[in-house]
Amino acid sequence: MDDSDEKSPWLTIDAKDYEAHMGHPSVGQLQALSGVLRAILERDRPSSLTVLGCATGNGFEHIDPSATTKVVGVDINPDYLTIANKRHEHLQGVVTWMLGDLGSVELPQRTFDHIHAGLIFEYVDASAILPKIATWLVRGGRFSVVLQHPSEKLGAVSTSPAAERLKVLGLILRHIAPSRFIQAAQASRLHWLNSERVELPDSKKLEVLEFVRKD
Q1: CATH class, range 3-213
Q2: How many CB atoms lie within 10 A of CB 83?
Q3: What does the domain layout of the chain look like in residue ranges?
Q4: 78 C-beta neighbours (distance < 10 Å), count
């Protein structure tokens, strides 16, 4: 990791606290994100997949190694990747766990059928990362992203017993409007295909956007 990685608040969040909060019944974000990835895998059955901000491997249980034979999971937190590796030992030889900040990670060009990113663009610079994502996709490859809509009633970090220990994330979270994200993606040669809204238990909403690289 470089110096910028060491300063990331994500390195201060214990995996147990992260999962306790995200998976709490009143929050339901782990369940929603897992469902989104499952739907993509079942529909498209990509042979190669990258998951950006994979954390502890939520949703990787839906990977069918007979269909998806090459997977890269990227995250900034080494403890998360250690847990993901142990949790998904059945995917050994299929998944490569990559430690790094998304601003500096480099992947082979024109390699992946699908790249997925769930709730990471609230914390990173989309304009810097989207052009790289486009180069990593094969022609006709798809990119899916999950964005969080701001809530008028709830704070940046939803309410749960573990919420206080994730409070630091609320200081760096920046919502990006789906329309603005679509513009940035299309400027990076990623053509918008469709959008779907997902309702969460606490009334927050997620937006799932899908793109394709045509050239």
Answers
A1: alpha beta
A2: 18
A3: 3-213
A4: 13
pLDDT digit string, tens, across residues 66-77: 999 999 999 999
Sheet with 48-52, side-by-side order of all strands: 95-99, 70-75, 48-52, 112-118, 137-148, 205-213, 190-199
On whether the CB atoms of residues 54 and 84 are closer than 8 A, the answer is: yes
Q: How far is CA 27 from CA 21, 32, 137, 170, 186, in A?
A: 7, 10, 32, 15, 31
Question: Phi and psi at residue 54, in whole multiples of 5°?
Answer: -75, -15
**Range with lowest mean pLDDT among 10-19, 43-52, 57-66, 74-83:** 10-19
- 85 by Cβ neighbours in 10 Å (0-12 / 13-18 / 19+) ranks as middle
